[in-house]
Recover the amino acids of this structure.
């Protein structure tokens, strides 16, 4: 976790205090269920909740000090609770194993993290949608291979991003379901020393599903799927970030990240306005993705479990969620405040002398009975002249003057093909598909 | 693609012939729709289908020869079709761009591949289920950290695998939906030169959904999610493979891969029966996973598309699906014919002199009023003696002879704790959860 | 391996025939050494070499057929050789284990592959160097963050690439040393049944170092380092490829991949010249990199070996070397024939109205006694005007008219700062560092 | 960075204070060189060093506060220094760009980190060597595929690890050279505003090589190679960790991590001694490896630089080095204190009834004139009986009783083959190769 790429709400999920609070709730709810089943006295559960009702501070340092001796985190925590709750605390954790607490806690933390990320996606979708409608019909050149192709609108670019992040949201909802399970099944998952109803009770209280079959741990294919999903979302962030970086290039300059008055772009070159936020997002995407492979390597634990996954999760649990949360927030800000330059978009669109309309002419020739191969040849030879003139020549004029073309199409027919609105006839259709409105 | 890790049905999906067949169907269905819309003559569509009805051989070499000149695969294919269909073929591909064909074809191929993989998962699940019920109550030691923990049954191990692969199936179904879309939207996705109804028609005919908004290409977050899902499935394969490898270790030998009579395990050591299939699966899992990162790196194409994803997909499209198909088939065979040795399982279970029952004694002491810390101490000091004797001493006898323990529990109460059935009381519950029966 | 991304010389290394030829040489050289040591009759070695001198065809299909029965590749090969050599062949492979042959063969193949890759790098370096000197003083704008910064020369860009690939060559030479070892040490590496002098003899004959200590296999950290090095080289390829892609963008167009007359860029847009080779290289780089993680996962084999690495190497051995060989060849062609447009470079350089010289003015102001902060402020306020004018205004004229600036610098002093040669004074120094001339 | 997987010396390298100290030294040494060249007054350099000689505390919070306004870290630092040094400070950073400072600083930090890691490797090698000689002739079974193969010694296992980590050290030394370069070349690497002698001076003072050609930044292929090398080292750590984990399995128990008296292995099963350190190392290896791909993705920066690498390096710079340092230290401790059980090794070695000697018998039969195929058959049929008896039958006795075998070998000849020393005849040779003594 790098502080400058962190936001408080997500970071708090991964702080020791939150973890211990969740541990307590798991233990106390389990004690309730055990009491209900007659395994432990009701007074034990009551003692726990009574103490909790005093809203006790979690003394992380004290728990750490105990762990330094016992070298076991859950025992350290239970010892610390017992110091405060007293004698009745000995009924806690009956028939449970450490992993029951640790894994169910991780499920709660990842669920909390998912909820923040889902809210982040909602905010991002909202920002994209607003800007998409704002620029629904702002013409701009579409590019394949970095080369001018045919006109699109800037709103269409954003509609694409919207659809992509909407898919990401659906995937994250599925991933959240995958990791939101509770396992309280004992040392090797047999419930030998604990009734499955304890698990069911705790699960219900914490908003989790029960884990149908656990070993000592919740199976790690769930977490692998979760982190893989974060990696896909990060890749979609990178895509939109790269788009902005391209648009802000000096020669393109169709859009820019918002530039606050006090900001200095370079210690040496005061005129520079650099797309540093989206470049940063590109790097952050690499980091979120880097969690995917270790999460997958965590799946093949030995037999009923080994603990190799634990250190990995101490890194990627916080890092991937905190970084993705930060990145989604940063991207939302970039889109929300993006400076968009429609005039420059139009200027770029026009600079190739009408080459972007070549496809329409090609079709018109074919429809006028010229063979596909000839049509292609007629258009290409004129297009090449325009290309080599760096936009100084006009494709429309050249085509009118081409005798082969003129034999098939009138000057008016040729002119009709050089018209932007033609390209945007289906924008409403696409927006309706994407935004469902 | 490595031939020895390939099966014919999956390989056929990726052969040139299948690709060209799908291309034809896309073009011909599109021509139908264009004819219906009055854009091209009905005779053009008819000419295509009439030729197709003759079940023409796909001359891959001829198409390759044309591509060697044009350096463009779709143009080469269209040229070849035109050579056979004649004049009417010029109406094909009206308003479409190559990617409309290529990406929709990839969607069909990945859907076909998904269907095979889903069938593979069904076969695997069936094999696991059968063996799980067969060994539902076969006792074996559960191990955490590779160390004996408490008893489980071999059926429970398989139930765990079943639940995991059932989750994998759900994930693959979702991933299949993600990639099964059709885009016929023209050069930059605006439908400038083609009516969206063409896309809808082709999608319906091919069993795909329409792509709500495409650029020139279908967005690659879909494919990233698909390959990430394959990576998760591969990791689950690795997990079960590693379990078998552990069980087959000389010192454990609780199960073995089936060993055919003619097979030689080693050129030097004729007694060896090596778990080579599951070791192989471990390696294949690494390969399937290796497709995940490139697939994610493919997402951030430049603007409306660049072609960097294409070479990646030429590798991972076939490799990841063919390898995973092979691996699932191999794993199914391993499970189906796995030699299971219940006697050896019991022998291993017993070898630690009853240490696996220590947790029950610990609980009994606590419930008899001994503090948690003292209970732990009493059990641990006796357990250590057994451990150091390498199983020669009996924990039950030592506990009976321990005055502190004897003060809290009678000999009979101690003996009651050394009982396997106690551990398996919830096996039915777990099976009901997993198999839903 | 994807045929279209393969070249014959590298592919041949990975064909069955080459593998069997290397196997034979290992076995025959080993038999020589065994004969020298008196372990086997000299006639046995002679029989092998006599047969080999007949230049026998390697009947891959026959060997495969035997393997289908024995399920063991080395035994199948030995059996096939024995069928041809006769009785004496039984002395082959004395005291050896299959891995002695397999791993030493892989070392030979990877060494052969390294030699081709080193030659590829030499060719690439030669092409880069030639173009670097050609454009040593061709001015072009340097860009950070995609934004114009200060002038560089196109030759400097290529000098950077040269230095990078020269480092790659050094790394590959080290990696080649890492994998070029011979192990003939028997079933668990103890030389129990074979004298270490056999290993030394075979190593010397094949141009390999001896493996100081092997288990059954050559340790896989060597191969991990090898594939990691290929991954770094691939990343450097990607960097230069991305540079070309950027330079070919419509708005930049400072360089272009060579465009052959017959080539069609797009089925729909005849004017398009797409940087498809470098886009392809970007994708291929992803694939070569994808071998790195599995190669690292291969290191932790169990005990004296398991065979999980084998399937991985059947993929990545050929795939990573063949793809990298192809990519280096393609990149060499791109650089060799790259169309470079110095006029366009100059036009782009000038388009920002002299903003690229702002740093020099800033320094001059500081040296004239203006505080750093004020200098920055004076330059920035004028630079911003130029920026907002899209290059219509001239920074030089604005600065002359700025009273604060004029108070510190004369008009002539300001003009002196707007001079390209100033920036290129150290080009010779840098070229001398890079090319050592 | 996860505190529990960190050690102070390595962490300190990555703390803000160390970074600012390095920045100061770069700036002050550069000012010295600028003064020497007459570009700035000597008094400026003197003022910097005079202040530095007062050993001023680095006020990280104050610098952060300035950065919050300027949004530029180097400017913030320079401003803070100027507040303390006064007027003369304005001569600092003349002609330099931020990256000159940042990248050279990173080179110093990575060099410092490398030095710690090299010392870690030395300590690890020393521990391995000591234990290797201690157990040079301790017999233990060699295993391939997890199955008993032939005898080795425990010292040989450690010799293998020694050779592997010695290779890792060589690789890290090469990687250190790769990243230890100094670039002070200005905004786009042309030295337009700064003499190359400044770079040379700073490089010499900091123990770095000059960067032959930089853009704005030091090229990232260097860092990719560095992190790839860390990934290989991590993989070697994983290998040795996995070996210990296997040896500590209940059924094997040939070695154990040292178990401190106060340590509790499990909250539920007091008898458990889990290999938690080596399991942890397995996970940490995954994390170090996870830095490799992002480091490679960092190589292809756009043009003369973009800043996408920066966020990645803020994570992986500290994380990979701190984690690897911790892991090497932990592994050294594990090896140093490893509990080794030679009796258990011998017991395991014997448990297969002499099967491990089958290869020797096979050879003896061949040498006695039996065909390879028959020899194999005779040994295998007896070996299978032993195998199926789970070690109850003795291979030696069965072979003596086999008429085909007895026809070729006398009882004494058979007995001679069942002898451990035979296997260890080359241990001295191997140790001499590995330890060079």
């Amino acid at each position: 976790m790098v502080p400058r790429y962190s936001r408080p709400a997500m970071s708090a999920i991964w702080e020791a205090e939150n973890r211990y609070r969740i541990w307590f709730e798991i233990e106390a709810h389990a004690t309730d269920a055990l009491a209900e089943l007659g395994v432990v006295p009701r007074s034990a559960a009551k003692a726990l909740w009574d103490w909790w009702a005093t809203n006790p501070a979690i003394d992380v340092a004290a728990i750490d000090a105990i762990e330094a001796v016992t070298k076991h985190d859950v025992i350290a925590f239970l010892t610390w609770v017992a110091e405060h709750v007293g004698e009745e605390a000995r009924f806690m954790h009956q028939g449970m194993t450490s992993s029951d607490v640790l894994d169910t806690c991780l499920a709660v933390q990842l669920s909390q993290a998912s909820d923040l990320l889902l809210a982040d996606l909602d905010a991002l979708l909202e920002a994209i949608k607003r800007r998409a409608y704002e620029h629904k019909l702002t013409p701009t050149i579409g590019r394949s291979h970095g080369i001018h192709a045919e006109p699109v609108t800037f709103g269409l670019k954003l509609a694409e991003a919207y659809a992509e992040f909407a898919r990401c949201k659906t995937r994250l909802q599925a991933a959240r379901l995958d990791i939101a399970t509770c396992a309280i099944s004992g040392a090797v998952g047999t419930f030998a020393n604990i009734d499955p109803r304890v698990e069911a009770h705790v699960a219900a209280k914490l908003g989790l599903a029960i884990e149908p079959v656990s070993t000592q741990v919740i199976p790690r294919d769930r977490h692998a799927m979760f982190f893989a999903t974060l990696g896909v979302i990060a890749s979609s962030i990178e895509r939109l970030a790269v788009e902005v970086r391209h648009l802000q290039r000096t020669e393109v300059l169709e859009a820019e990240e918002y530039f606050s008055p006090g900001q200095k772009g370079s210690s040496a070159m005061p005129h520079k306005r650099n797309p540093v936020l989206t470049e940063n997002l590109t790097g952050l995407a690499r980091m979120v993705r880097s969690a995917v492979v270790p999460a997958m390597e965590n799946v093949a634990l030995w037999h009923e479990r080994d603990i190799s996954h634990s250190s990995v999760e101490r890194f990627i649990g916080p890092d991937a969620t905190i970084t993705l949360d930060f990145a989604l927030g940063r991207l939302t800000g970039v889109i929300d405040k993006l400076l968009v330059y429609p005039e420059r978009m139009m200027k770029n669109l026009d600079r190739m002398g009408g080459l972007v309309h070549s496809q329409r002419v090609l079709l018109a020739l074919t429809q006028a009975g010229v063979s596909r191969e000839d049509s292609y040849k007629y258009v290409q030879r004129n297009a090449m002249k325009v290309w080599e003139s760096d936009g100084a020549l006009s494709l429309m004029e050249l085509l009118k003057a081409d005798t082969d073309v003129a034999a098939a199409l009138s000057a008016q027919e040729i002119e009709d093909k050089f018209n932007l609105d033609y390209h945007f006839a289906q924008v409403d259709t696409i927006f309706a598909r994407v935004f469902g409105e």
Q: What stands out?
A: The beta strands of chain B are 139-144, 147-153, 181-182, 209-210, 255-256, 339-340. The domain at 355-417 of chain B is CATH 1.10.40.30 (Ribonucleotide Reductase Protein R1; domain 1). Chain B is about 65% helix and 5% strand.
